[in-house]
Amino acid sequence: MMMMPLRCLSELARRRPDRAVDAMRVGLRCLMSTCPLSKATDDSQRLYATSSCANVPEVALSEAPLSDMLVDSFGRFHNYLRISLTERCNLRCQYCMPAQGVQLTPNSELLSHDEIIRVAGLFVTSGVDKIRLTGGEPTIRKDIEDICLHLSGLKGLKTLAMTTNGLVLSKKLPRLKECGLNALNISLDTLVPAKFEFMTRRKGHSRVMESIDASIQLGFQSVKVNCVVMRGMNDDEICDFVEMTRDKPVNVRFIEFMPFDGNVWNVKKLVPYAEMMDKVVSANVLKV
Ligand SMILES: C[S@@+](CC[C@H](N)C(=O)[O-])C[C@H]1O[C@@H](n2cnc3c(N)ncnc32)[C@H](O)[C@@H]1O
């Protein structure tokens, strides 16, 4: 995963001064906004974009005059943009946010619906074909359906994805699908309701499970479950999550616990990827 550098926006300003002043303003505000995890990090991390790390596609370059702006110094073309829509969240996951929440940025400094569509449009014109909406919790943004509707209408965008905790997702899903959302990552760290309440400091395990089921029933082209693994907390459930994929057509992604300022990170709680794999292999759960 790579951070989208501020350079992209300043490069846009250099190449398209007619369109760029607003984009710069919007982009800079975007960089200054949202992700609670990045509160204590530098500005370049506040709008984060991910990359498929592909080589520069010849076609994209010839068809889209701005797309070389999205090539990094290793020659990789970045076609994947993540937009953090809000820093608010309806959970207080211990590994992510302090119990009291984070200090919120004034609304006037956050991107409006129109600004999001405008800056996303500039990225899509430049070759981005996948956008992921995240946060905070993107589903608590009141204009989420409208944002999806207008983003999915951007010519050239193939995938509109969302990373969500699933707490209020199920009832919004049919409309979100109509509005063009086509891929979902739902975060779920435990299959045990009581542990969910402990880890997230909120109730709601059954609602998240309902959202996973609703996503499958509605036929989303991709449903992934994000599971952050912490030693002594949920590392005993790794095989249960793998087993869950027998009944549900979802991909489970086990995520190493990462340190952020203000979270409860401790190296002893980190379960390295190789150890997770060992657990799965030695338990033989991968056998059909
Ligand atoms: C910050 S959340 C935002 C989107 C949404 N609220 C959600 O819960 O999916 C995005 C992803 O980051 C993961 N995450 C948060 N803190 C983490 C940490 N310390 N280490 C690893 N992953 C983390 C979450 O589990 C989630 O899958």
TrEMBL record:
Pfam families: Radical_SAM (PF04055). Pathway: Cofactor biosynthesis; molybdopterin biosynthesis. GO terms for molecular function: 4 iron, 4 sulfur cluster binding; catalytic activity; metal ion binding. Residues 73-288 form the Radical SAM core domain. GO terms for biological process: Mo-molybdopterin cofactor biosynthetic process. The keyword Lyase does not apply. Keywords: 4Fe-4S, Iron, Iron-sulfur, Metal-binding, Molybdenum cofactor biosynthesis, S-adenosyl-L-methionine. CDD domains: Radical_SAM (cd01335). Its cofactor is [4Fe-4S] cluster. It comes from the Eukaryota. The keyword Magnesium does not apply. This is Os02g0258900 protein. The lineage of its organism: Eukaryota, Viridiplantae, Streptophyta, Embryophyta, Tracheophyta.
